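Input record (one chain):
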Amino acid sequence: MERPELPLPQLYAFVVLAEELHFGRAATRLGIAQPPLSQQIRRLEDKVGHALFSREPGHVALTPAGRELLPAARRALSDLSDGLATARAVGSGRAGCLRIGFAASLALTLLPGLLRTFRQRFPDVRLTIHEMTTAPQIAALHDRTIDIGLLREPPTDEPELGFETVLSEPFVAVLPSTHPLAAGRTVEVAQLADSPFVLLPREVGPGLHDRITGLCTAAGFTPRVVQHAVEWQTVCALVETGLGVSLAPASIRRIRLTGVAFRRIKPGTARTRVAVAWRRNDPNPLVRRLLTTVGQEGWDGGPRPAKGRGEAAVSRWRRGGGRPRPAPGGPGRC
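The corresponding structure, as predicted from the sequence alone:
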């Protein structure tokens, strides 16, 4: 980038004089004496190579060169002022861009309320959201194509990333409505041993996949997986066809399909964790703003009671309607 040819103080003095067309009034407005103002204008004219003002006793007017320079000078000063204001707002975390990855099932629980609250608090921040399963979110955080991840069952071997549990929910059995076990209110996991399963592939969410298969192992069997599906809505749709059964986070019950039954499981102590994830060394102040919002807000939007970190820091985010649409173009655009 080339060094600016015209010093900003001289440019500003030129604009003020062009507006006042009187050296005395312009000097007063600038807070300087008249001789220094005259010197600045002459230096600017020397730089331009032409007179910018015609000076006659009791009359000052712009020359053709001055009239040509004035709009550009105003734009330059205005752009600089706007740039400084924006830089200060971004630096203080009041504006800028925040890229958020989220697991699809979280559109049924905490995501709408979280985004609504954050946008109310920071209306000048641009948010782009990207629907991603857990493993791609971890990769995107490392690649710096997202700033925040909202995911299930965070990994334990990521020292460069921070994780905070924000939601804990039980598992439910997902059954075709015609399945014999759908007639009851609860299902023992062991009762699913002979049923085929529809599950998420392990590579897109290793932690959640292992939690579900672990429930089956603890019940004495290995699930017979006949179909994988990346999205929970697809899992439910395949269950509705009678292809198999599944175990899923309880929030999946908000997916309304007439041919699918959701039933509480026994034992009912198993829960799945939802966490917010971020890069520990991220200098973006908006990351801290969002983490603070997560820490303060509760299920109903009220203040969150003081709790410890980790699994004890379980919040109950209020549900919100509508499923956010991913930003076009994939992660990285903001």
